[in-house]
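Input chain follows. Return structure tokens only.
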Amino acid sequence: MAFSILGIGTANPTGTLDQHDAQKVAEYLCAQSAEQATYIPAIYGGSGISRRFICLGTQVIKDIVENTRISNSPFLPSGEPGDRGPTTRERMAIYEAEAPLLAIKSSAEALAQSGVLPNEITHLVTVSCTGFAAPGFDAAIINDLGLCPSVERTHVGFMGCHAALNGLRVARAYAESDPKARVLVCSVELCSLHYNYGWDPQKVVANALFSDGSGAIVGAASGGTSSTWHVTANGSCMIPEAAEVMTWTIGDHGFGMTLSKKIPEVIGKKLRPWLDEWLAKSGKKIGDIKSWAIHPGGPKILDAASTSIGLKGEETWASREILDQYGNMSSSTVIFILKKLMAKKSPLPCVSIGFGPGLNVEVALFE
């Protein structure tokens, strides 16, 4: 049985950050020598991003660049040697305050589009790898949007950039087990909270890519129109020999992302053979797929996935547009890409692909 997407919504904070200002921030907070500063323009210039959204607000950026303290943010540099930025506790306090606001906004849009009333939602699946709080943003969705207190909740936590696809897999399982189920999936990621201070090349790259956003999907076992997208298959593949090339760990000053230069190479070698095998289970080949929603972890990762599959540049247009205008919003990014593809009435079938720590590949087939 398939999971029919009845509504889809997205949301971002009001604060924006263009890559020019982001580069200046990196020069202030990350470069510890003139030589290190010379590497930063190439990193930001090659990110494939024009602007991003951040929950910290634009005044924080102005304060860092102009050496003022108007925002009074804990993210302002202390001036002390070895400054690592806010503690994880301080970062989580911001997550606890800001994540529910985006979750409510994206979920409200998805519900309005779906035609499903809030009190008709039977299952709520929340997704996030950038923060922890209990009660979490799931409670805010229930209370502010009027979901039933008896709604069944499931949280997909700390699984990385592919986790929205894990959330859709959970939603599909609920739909298969109960034809009357109405499922709301909501992802919220506040990646900017984990900005890394000091010089670590892999983390400087992460600083240049990640941003904040929320995506939500409402669906059921059936319903919609002739143009409705349906999740008909899900798949997952871990590449254990590449476990160290992408990691996501909790430290004293935020969560730390490791992005090895080997990631594109691993994806280039491993993705296509497994994807061929997985598609065959649904009676399909690469050539049968008409649209692609590939998570743009960064331009090199997107290029590696495209080359491995054998796609032309225009076939990943939606992924590149979202990366350019929104940055890498971790798990929420795929929902933004799907929304864009649906709005353009892109042809089906569509395959969505995400990559996460492990190194793990998660996929979904839409028909």
